[in-house]
Structure formats: C-alpha cells, structure tokens
UniProtKB/TrEMBL annotation:
ATP-binding listed as a keyword: yes
One GO molecular-function entry: 5-(carboxyamino)imidazole ribonucleotide synthase activity
ATP-grasp domain: residues covered: 114-299
Protein name: N5-carboxyaminoimidazole ribonucleotide synthase
Recorded family membership: Belongs to the PurK/PurT family.
Record pathway: Purine metabolism; IMP biosynthesis via de novo pathway; 5-amino-1-(5-phospho-D-ribosyl)imidazole-4-carboxylate from 5-amino-1-(5-phospho-D-ribosyl)imidazole (N5-CAIR route): step 1/2
Uppermost EC category: ligase
C-alpha cells in the first residue's frame, strides 16, 4: 500500500480468490457498506455468490486484472498461491494491495519463510534446505527424526514425509519429485496454537487472543478459544507474531502458526498472509472478526478491538460429514443446540477432506462451549 487515504464505505474492494475466506470477507465488507469484486476462475464461487461483482477469469488474465484495478482502489487475496506477479501488476496500476507481493512471496516458500522468521528474532524449528540429492547426503544428523516438506504449495499436511533416519531422506526427496524441500527436526509438541495479527497502514498492530488448534489427518479439526496455555506463553506468542508482522512491514491480516513445547516456549511454524481457518471463531467470539479487520486494514481505517466476547470452539465441517450422514447432515439437530452458529460455504460437492463449513459453539464458560461442541461433533464428525 502506498498512501494512507481512507476508503470509506461505499467504495469497491477487490478479492483475489473465490473460496470461503473471500466469502466471509465479502459478507463483512457488505455489512460495512462496501461493494466487493471477486476474481475467481472456478465454476462455483462461494465468494462470488455473495459479492456485488464476480469476474470469472484466471488470476493472470490481463483484462480481468485491469478491470479489478480500475474498479477497486484496494485489493486483497484469500490464499497465498495467487501469483505474486498479479499482485505486483495490480500495485503497478495504482491499486493498494494488501498484503504486499513481497509478504506473499515469503509465505509461499518455506525456506524463505523460516529464514525470514529467524532473522526477525523469532525461534523456528532446526532445519536445512534440501534442494538437491547432495543436500540429502549432507543433512545434519541432529535433524532426525525429521519431516521433509516441499518448500512450495503444501497445505493441510500435503507434501510432507516423516523421515526417521538419514538413510531414508533421499528416498523421501525422490518421492516428493525432487522439488525444492525443507527438512525440519520433528519436535515434541505439547500443543499447537495460532496467532492472528492485524497491521494497519500506519503500522498500528493488534493481535487476537491465542487460538488452540487440533488437527486430524493434517487438517484443522477444532479451534479452542481461549487457548489452554500459560499466560506467559500467550504473551510470548502474541509478541512474536507482532515482531514478524513488523519485520514484513505487513499490512492486513497475518496468521502465524506456533508449536508450544513442554517447557512453555513457542516455535513459529508457518505464516499465512490472510485470514486463517483458526480465526473463523472471531466472527462470534471476539469484538471484531478477522474479516472485519481485513476490511479495515484495506480501507485504511483504525483497527477494531480484538478482545474476547465469549469463549468458544470452532469445529470444521468437512465433506466427510455427508458420508457419515449418508446424505445431507441433520442441520436442524445441530441448530437446536443452544449457542451454535452454523456457517456453510455453498460449495458444490461434499468431497472427502474438503472444507464445507464450520460450526462455532459458544458458551458462558469454556466448559459449556466444549459440552456443546461435543454434541455437534457427535452429529457431524
Ligand atoms: P501445512 O501447510 O500442511 O499446514 P505444517 O508445516 O503446518 O504444514 O505441518 C502440518 C502439521 O504437521 C503441523 O500442524 C504439525 O502438527 C505437524 N508438524 C509440522 N512440522 C512439524 C515439526 N517440525 N515437528 C513436529 N510436528 C510438525
Ligand atoms: Mg500448518
């Protein structure tokens, strides 16, 4: 972003990507009185469906990018694999792009990302880039047992192989197709957390309370807010997230995934230059949602309060829920549970492992929210 000009409600905001993150952004932006244009090549577009304009073209399409640039003074992205060159092109055309292309390119490459986080003074797992067969021979012994991850395009645990011994590394590297990789030491995790940090045009920062995350088969299954971690660990993670956002001169909503170790220390794992699945809980549980913060940062408005309104649990609803129900899940039963808010993304096919929606289970206490979440899980998971 180049200027600090405030875009008032009534302005157009652009979104690269038409998935659920774009959809929830669009709902919040519309509530605030903005018009949203979505660029998305897909047949079905969860975000396009709830937006003022949908452009069904490729992310690299010149005409589509020109249209976005002429209509929208600010453009954001909902996933980190939008071509960085397209964001740079929009910026050239005078569009405020948040996040900046540079921040996106850091998150796109695990080697670059780890080096950047470490340089910002935040601890990361011991690691080594694996870019060739000879790097496999030279990998330090102390990184085993380790995890070999593709440097690019990995998500939901895809593109990762556990490598117990050094002798298995070459085979793992070949199995991933000899693409650029990173080898990380496999750490003993006490729990996994994430922090969402918002950074405005003027450098103002705000973090949400820490989210506690539980994964199943590499996919986020459940987020607990507030995280059940010591206060010092909470403070450490939030301070580290701000440090990373400042080092990136980030503008927008940035998520940092952290590992919490037995001793309460935190290790930054990866970044996502956008709202994050774990932050969906902010829609109901915090004063301002992560999507409203995204709107505010794009528009150059002050950040909203991130404080907790009520404890809650977010349960992801995958396509598997349709398999379990042998058809459409019993939404009426889910909605009969008090404090449960249902979000369905309007995707066409409920495929195995596909994120179709989520349920936020609120309670006066975390225990009450957990009880309600258990009931929802029994129906859906
Ligand atoms: P993805 O992009 O698929 O989310 P991650 O790097 O977050 O990739 O890895 C997915 C999951 O694998 C993590 O949430 C964590 O449970 C586990 N994991 C990843 N790296 C490590 C590590 N160095 N030590 C222990 N567990 C790890
Ligand atoms: Mg992850």
């Amino acid at each position: 972003m180049t200027d600090s000009h405030v875009l008032l409600p009534g302005s157009w905001l652009g979104m690269m990507g038409g998935g659920q993150l774009g959809r929830m952004f669009s709902v919040e932006a519309s509530r605030l009185g903005y018009h949203v244009a979505v660029l998305d090549p897909g047949e079905v577009s969860p975000a396009g469906e709830v937006s003022a304009l949908r452009i069904k073209k490729s992310y690299k399409d010149r005409e589509a990018l020109d249209q976005m640039a002429s209509l929208c003074p600010a453009v954001s992205t909902e996933f980190e694999n939008v071509p960085a060159a397209s964001l740079a092109y929009l910026a050239e055309k005078g569009c405020r792009t948040a996040p900046l292309a540079e921040a996106v390119s850091i998150s796109q490459d695990r080697n670059k990302e780890k080096a950047f986080i470490a340089a910002a003074g935040v601890p990361v797992a011991p690691h080594a880039p694996i870019l060739s067969e000879s790097d496999c021979q030279e990998a330090p012994a102390e990184l085993f047992p380790g995890i070999l991850k593709t440097a690019r395009l990995g998500y939901d645990g895809k593109g990762q192989v556990v490598v117990d011994k050094k002798e298995q590394l070459l085979r793992a590297y070949l199995s991933l197709g000899k693409v650029e990789c990173i080898l990380e030491k496999k750490l003993a995790l006490k729990t996994e957390c994430s922090v969402i940090v918002c950074r405005g045009l003027d450098g103002e920062t705000a973090t949400f309370p820490v989210f506690e995350n539980h994964h199943l088969h590499g996919i986020l299954a459940e987020t607990v807010l507030p995280a059940r971690i010591p206060d010092e660990t909470e403070a450490l993670a939030r301070a580290d997230a701000i440090r990373i956002a400042n080092a990136m001169k980030y503008v927008g909503v940035l998520c940092i995934e952290f590992f919490v170790l037995e001793d309460g220390s935190v290790i930054a794992n990866e970044t996502a230059p956008r709202p994050h699945n774990s932050g969906h809980i902010t829609i109901e549980a915090c004063m301002t949602s992560q999507f409203e913060q995204q709107v505010r940062t794009m528009a150059g408005l002050p950040l909203g309060s991130t404080s907790l309104k009520t404890p809650g649990i977010m349960l992801n609803i995958l396509g598997d829920a349709w398999e379990k129900a042998d058809g459409e899940p019993d939404w009426a039963r889910v909605l009969a549970i008090p404090g449960v808010k249902l979000h369905l993304y309007g995707k066409a096919e409920p495929r195995h492992g596909r994120k179709m929606g989520h349920a936020t289970c609120l309670g006066r206490t975390l225990d009450e929210a957990l009880e309600r979440a258990k009931k929802v899980a029994r129906i859906l998971q």
